[in-house]
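Before going further, learn to read the protein records used in this course. The integers have meaning only within a learned vocabulary of local backbone shapes. To see the layout at work, look at the sequence and tokens printed below.
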Amino acid sequence: MGWITVIFFTLLTRTESENQTCKVIGRTGFMEFSKEGDLMIGGVFSMTSTRKLVDNNYQKFPYSYCIKWNDRELRFARTMIFTVGEINRDATLLPGVSLGYRVYNGCGSENLILAAVEAVNGEDSRGCSDKIQAVIGHSSSGVSTAINRMLSPLSIPQVSHLSTCACLSDKRQYPTFFRTVPSDRFQIAGLVQLMKYFDWRWLGIIYSPGLYSEEGTTDFVKYAKKEGICVEYRLPYSKTSKKKFIAITAMLRESSSKVILMFMSFSDAKSFLAKIEAYNITGKQWVGSESWITQADLASVDTKHILHGAIGFALPQALKPSDEPQSDIIKAFWEKFFDCSFSPSNTSTMCTGTEDLRTVSNDYTDVAFFREENNVYKAVYLVAYALHALLKCENGSNPTTVLEHIKYVNFTTVNGANVFFDENGDSIAQYDLVNWQMKDDGSVDIVNIGQYDTSFPEGERFKLKKDTKIVWGGNSNEVPRSVCREPCPPGTRKAINKNKPVCCFDCFECPEGTISNQTNSPHCLICPPEFWPNKKRDRCLLKPTEYLSYKEIMGALLTGFGLIGVFLSLLISIIFLTHKETPIVRANNSELTFGITFVLCISCVLGKTIVVLMAFRATLPGSNVMKWFGPAQQRLSVLTFTLIQVGICILWLTINPPFPRMNMKYYKEKIILECAFGSAVGFWAVLGYIGLLAVLCFILAFLARKLPDSFNEAKLITFSMLIFCAVWIAFIPAYVSSPGKFTVAVEIFAILASSFGLLVCIFVPKCYIIIFRPQQNSKKHLMGKIPPRTL
């Protein structure tokens, strides 16, 4: 900082040599700095910010004077003066033409407008009126709107360095307004992307009165809503309203949002922080607008619990010192800095000009970054390049004005910044994302942690620096969470509650058979027919296929019984083959015993029943029926009955045969592998024919129930047919109502039960006689003496 001391001392001694005129602030004059040139530009700044009214008891014309210096605005004015000097030293820009300036000061909006009027109609030090080519300023959006309404009818361009209100982009209202600071719509877009990046969907806003804050807050809410970001509250702050401040503190304590956007001007932010520091408001992440986020003098030990970890977008930094001569106003600042006086005084010591500026810390001496000053620097160069283009085509056939040329200016400053305008008069938007990292002594390091640059494609504009430490608000070691409702997890759907903000949605579990595999999914998706959701309902899984398997208990039992039946059939066959010459086997009608299907089997049983009846009728005197139902007729009857069933089956298999089918309707969560009928008529025709033969066999056997006890074939057939019919009559409702694999199990059970009924009732008693009662296995015992009976 030693070079600043040398510069100030040199400037104080070189004032007269530069013929720099300084006029004392009065009731009619607002010009503070001026330097004559061939072409003149004006500047309007608020180098003083507090007024005091002198009413003269209203006996004379009242007037006001300013009593407080604005360090930052003075720095803007000095940047303009420095830039004009740098341009005049450049032999390639405006060659042969000198650029002059008139810098005007005013405190209060009405004085600033009067200062702008004076800039347009002002006179130089010789009393000659020179028209200014452009006006630089003002910092306030509200003041800039008023100034431009006055300048636009005169076609005088206005270039602001800090008026960010998006409303100024409206060329119908402000046709001659340009700015080197990005419009608030870019800052707002960056803030929305910041909230979106860190998933801050639920926040509060505190703003101050004025065009900058009110318009900015309104636009932020509008753009945030499009991105699904909700505002819990939006409260205005006023320096003079205690009621509004109490409402703010109450809301900060009660609100559930963790993120607070403080969209205020610098002066309002300073006032608000001075009041809020006394309240124990903790656990909040503060986000600042560019107007105050880089103002390090807001930091103190008392505001550490509030501002520690604050983040926000700031104008890009650029280092550029000043070496232009200073005016007498600098003496006032010097006297303020060091509490001394350049004129003899009884109340303060004399200023020597050698005081050490390194001991002073305020807005004016803070030259670390020059963020806003860089915009002043670009604004002056912008006007110079427009004038340069105007002079180059001065003798052309189409004379133009500086206003028309300024629209198309495109240049790069010595700092590497590219300057040009879009159709709204807005320059390219570049911001640094800064983070407040406060120390124990109350000082702060404002660290650059990222960037937002609208020159990049959409989606690549917001970037965080890698390996950069970020300090979070609320003493948090990780990114704070600020949502009204946590995102709906996969397996649920998001439903908007009409009585709440869109961020305060409800989450409902997906209905049966549907899934959602994303967070905050508005709809649940139906799984394909062969799939079913898992328990979390976030994935569709292939449905398990159910069928009667040998590996499960039911399948194993049925298989076991089937094998037992096969074993018993083989055993009985062996017994009968071994004793085939015995009377009981010979009387068994072996021609009809072994069938391969139920029809064949029942046909055989039916034939056996007929043979029994015929045999006993043949014992009656004069009867010769047996010759009509001998072995050949018995085999023919079985063949005929069987061929009828074969015909039915052939028709069924030809017209509409059975086929394997995956049944996905009976159970929603699994697939039933089953054999479809194909033709229901064919299926029931086959069963019906079997049933018809079984009923006919049962009736005939029932009629033979009173035959002699020694020959019990008819009784055995009756019992077997009774079991057979009972099983298959019960089978029909059981088969129709049984689900899935139980349908097959019922069918197998019916087959086994009826088969065992035939096997046990007809053959087991005969095997018992053959093995355990061989004395009864004789023709004499079988025939016995039959008393005369009628059928």
